[in-house]
Amino acid sequence: MRKFLLFTALLLCHRQLSFAQIDTKATKETQALYRNLAKLSETNILFGHQHATEYGHGWSGDEERSDVKTVTGSHPAVIGIDFSGLSERPDDVIAKTKEALRKNVVATYDRGGVTTVAWHFSNPASGGGFYWNDSVSKASMALIKPGGSHHEKYKQILKTLADFANSVKGKDGTLAPMIFRPYHEFDGDWFWWGKGHTSRQDFIDVWRFTVSYLRDSLNVHNFIYAFSPDNKFTTEAEFLERYPGNEWVDMVGMDNYGDFGRDGKYNLEAGLKKLKIISDYGKKADKLAAFTETGLESIPNPTWWTETLLKTLKAEKLQLAYVLVWRNDSKSPTHFYAPFPEQVSAADFVKFYNDPYTLFEKDLKDIYK
User: What are the alphabetically sorted keywords of the record (predicted)?
Assistant: First the structure.
């Protein structure tokens, strides 16, 4: 038997936590997920993979498939999706995208897994997509905030997101909770909402409006709101430079590829220090904390899972709800972040899977209760 999670005992014996969501009307399933992630983070970490069940290395759209499941026998505990296709496209394309995403989220929920949502949000005021393009991109955070020229358009985009959020009902009729992570990696300049293209105050104003409008005006009550810069900080003060306030955030996190082997460069000491800043702030502020994105493209290091990632995660008494690696492209032979059969790190990934510290979908018991 692999790991055995005594979930009920954990719930009964655990000390009382003061973690509270910013949405006082959150569904009971969302509240349960929030509390259970907080409790599990004291002893374990959930493993996540972006787009895990939508496509993988050399395949797309297969029922009940993921590269992680093919290697280990279990889907990831956390599966990442993206709201990128819900704006700046024809209505019929958006409708088709919404239905595919809905099926994905509901299937994950019905199996007992967790969904997290990234938002590669195409610039609503100019061309250029979600990346910053010097020749066409506009600095649009000031334009979509209240009083801006594109504020009404932004409200319509948020309504599309809200309609989707209120459509993801599982087989028991309840709404699937989602960890919503907008405007990620905002401390870099590669996205149009990045630090070099918007003021601190405009970023905070847009964040606060986004949460307030979804929660208070559009009645979205199945989101857990996650704040995650990239790794361009070394102190808590730098991490919090664009933080909108504890009343506007449920989870703090970080995306960090640079310290974990990107371009062959490792600085695990720096990576651990940043994870500790996040974990410590989560404990101090009664927030969930997570390693919201990482990974090593093509995974050429055969022991990356146990010798790099797992050792770092276990080096301090971190409290992180999950760690998520990026996607496995269906067509590219090199753009993948989780192993598949015969990949050089697959055997080490099985060791990572078998470690009692890591939790996959099969290990989750009643996480919504």
Answer: Carbohydrate metabolism, Glycosidase, Hydrolase, Secreted, Signal
Residue ranges of alpha helices (H) inside the chain are 7-13, 28-40, 67-72, 91-111, 141-144, 151-165, 200-212, 236-239, 268-285, 311-314, 346-354
Residue ranges for the binding site?
A: 120, 190, 257
pLDDT tens per residue across span 298-341: 999 999 999 999 999 999 999 999 999 999 999 999 999 999 99
CA atoms within 13 A on the CB side of 300: 9
Q: What is the mean pLDDT of residues 340-364?
A: 98
CA dist 55 → 52, 293, 338 (Å): 6, 18, 12
Q: Per-residue confidence at 19, pLDDT binned at 50, 70, 90?
A: low
Task: Say what the pTM is.
Answer: 0.95
Could you tell me which CATH number the domain at 7-11+31-363 has? 3.20.20.80
CA 142, chain centre distance (Å): 25
Residue spans per domain, the chain: 7-11+31-363
Where in the sequence numbering do the catalytic residues fall? 185, 293
Query: Residues comprising the binding site for substrate?
Result: 120, 190, 257
